[in-house]
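Table S2 (continued). Query chain:
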Amino acid sequence: MSSQRKVLEAAMRAMAIGDAGAALAIVMDTEGSTYAHAGAMALFGGRDGQVGWLSGGCLEPDIQRRAQAAAEAGTLDWMDIDTRDDEDLLSGSAVGCRGRLHLALLPLARLDGLATLLDAWRQGSAALHWTLSAAGDLQVRLHEQSAQWRLPTAPPAEAPRQAAYTLAIRAAPRVLICGAGPETPLLVPWLRELGWRVTVAERRPRWRPAAALADQAWEVSPTDAALRASDHDAALVMHHHFELDREALAALADTGLPFIGLLGPGRRRDDLFKVLPGDVRERLRHRLRSPIGLRLGGQGPEAIALSIAAQLQAVLAGEPA
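Corresponding output:
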């Protein structure tokens, strides 16, 4: 998710300035053990340089050469990278993975109108659907919006194995942080790098600069923040202030957010539960993670921010957290 968001935002910047040398590489299919999976992306040749990775760095030079050639020619190119050969392993030239990547290399300059769809995807909560045929017919769809292109194809050194490929790039998950604090300047950039869209709700002047690091900063009360967070996937209660945390938990109990995290030790959670009505406690009980964060060890805001980011990454990936 992180790479997809960063790559597509870089693609938007390249299209905004009319960068004719930028090409988007998309993994359409894989076999065996690979660094990247279907849907992974990288941008080559744009003003930002390379954005995104499809391997640990060993395959990128070859991909970049082909991608830049596709951009210069304005053609769709198909590229197969197969690292399963035992001869490479025995000769010492193997890259380490034993798999196959099938890539589509798309010249961005030929995709007029794509930036509008990418911007709508970045702001919304729906998946972006891609359909690409072997003949060069590309459709990108978001809800009822769609765009289509017919791309000339380069001579197929590696012909596609399917008549058409489809991918769905899901929207970035959203997290609301109720209250900034010492952890925020570290936590917000880490979560954004991991693919989350981050909102920080903070009215206290001391912490507004930290809140400004987020995608959105709301100068509203915890209650108002909860009312506005219906499209978010998680909320973290982190005020370092008992009454503000109590207000946030009471308001979040009335939302459908499946993940609510509370910063602080278990004793603090117990004290908060003593002053919350029984029906509020019951609505929170199966969604509240407290103390928030995985048990990684360490002390201080750096270790706390890392443990929270690790737990949300596990949630994002569908792992037990």
